[in-house]
UniProtKB/TrEMBL annotation:
Keywords: Plasmid, Signal
CDD domains listed in its UniProt record: PBP2_TAXI_TRAP_like_2
Domain of life: Bacteria
Signal peptide per UniProt: 1-19
NCBIfam families named among the record's database cross-references: TRAP_TAXI
Protein source organism: Qingshengfaniella alkalisoli
Protein name, as recorded: TAXI family TRAP transporter solute-binding subunit
A Pfam family annotated for this UniProt entry: NMT1_3
InterPro entries in the cross-refs: TRAP_TAXI
Length: 324
């Protein structure tokens, strides 16, 4: 065979293989994130854009109500991808997601570890509030978007710690503005760090980032599906040292029916170059293959399981892989 014909034949074969590899792939995709001003929106929009660019598809992040709504959107296929935390994921599987009570959202699969969501409290320095125990009776506390991880768990945590409050909801940017305008006393954040709304507040005014005491931390860990966490001192200019906190793991999710080769390619883009992800958001320092084992709730998408087994020597049992 002449060289020209060989090259042409090779090109045709490569094109055919590429077409075969992409069989069933969607032409576009959506990643369910959360409200603007929160970490989910920045992180989710970032990896959506990265995947779209690398795979030559149309895709992007979508503003949602956060982890609970993302489980519903991905389960029904209204969004191909989303992000959730382990607490809301468990509730969704059990049929206690408030968005659709009784519906077991078993068609949302884990695809890669994201980061831990610390729970933290912020107040204006002018308020004089420097500890949870100093939050005044009937304080107006912003808990984030309704149905979010923060809104689901932080009020219960405040109840556990004996705080009496008036509950407020809204997007993180909006709540930050309300705090600055004196319409809120405290914001209870559950978001990857640094939280954009807190970073913005620091630029505009003086704030107190309030840590839990050892006793408060222990009480919360005993009562909720969370673990110990320290917010590093370099996270915010306000912090003079690490701040004691608690956290819950986040995972990216996909509709379980998406093609295996498509999800494997998406996971490869996100997990194969951590530096690119950290450039999107510093919370992605935890978006590394070895953290695959932090998922003990959701079934794995077979495409994601394949990637982690082949690239991270992951020990994922068959009974944790969708369709196996």
């Amino acid at each position: 065979m002449k060289l020209g014909a060989l090259v042409a034949a090779t090109a045709v074969a490569a094109t055919a293989a590429s077409a075969q590899d992409r069989e069933g792939w969607p032409e576009s995709f959506t990643v369910g994130t959360a409200s603007q001003g929160g970490t989910y929106f920045a992180y989710g929009s970032g990896w959506a854009n990265l995947v779209a660019e690398e795979l030559g598809l149309s895709g992007g992040g979508e503003v949602t109500g956060g982890p609970m709504q993302n489980m519903a959107l991905v389960h029904t296929g209204e969004a191909q991808f989303g992000m959730t935390t382990m607490g809301p994921a468990r509730e969704s599987l059990e049929g206690t997601n408030p968005i659709a009570p009784g519906l077991q959202m078993t068609n949302a699969c884990a695809i890669f570890p994201m980061y831990q969501t610390p729970f933290s409290v912020t107040a204006l320095s002018s308020s004089g509030i420097t500890a949870v125990s100093e939050i005044p009776e009937g304080a107006r506390i912003g808990f984030g978007p309704a149905g979010s991880t923060s809104d689901t768990y932080f009020p219960l945590m405040m109840d556990t710690l004996g705080v009496n409050y008036e509950r407020r909801n809204g997007g993180w940017s909006d709540l930050g503005g309300q705090l600055q305008d004196g319409l809120l006393d405290v914001i209870a954040f559950a978001a990857g760090i640094p939280v954009p709304a807190v970073s913005q507040l620091e630029v505009q005014t003086d704030v107190n980032i309030i840590e839990f005491t050892e006793e408060e931390q222990a009480a919360l860990i005993e009562a909720f599906p969370i673990s110990e966490f320290e917010i590093p001192a370099d996270t915010y200019t306000t912090l003079e040292g690490p701040a004691r906190s608690v956290s819950m793991w986040n995972f990216a999710i996909a509709n379980c029916e998406l093609p295996e080769s498509f999800v494997e390619a998406v996971v490869d883009v996100v997990m194969s170059d951590n530096e690119r992800m950290v450039n999107i958001h510093r919370a992605a320092r935890s978006t590394v293959p070895e953290n695959y084992d932090k998922n003990n709730v959701l079934m794995w998408h077979p495409g994601a399981a394949k990637w982690f087994k082949e690239n991270a020597d992951a020990d994922i049992p068959d009974d944790m892989i969708f369709g196996m």
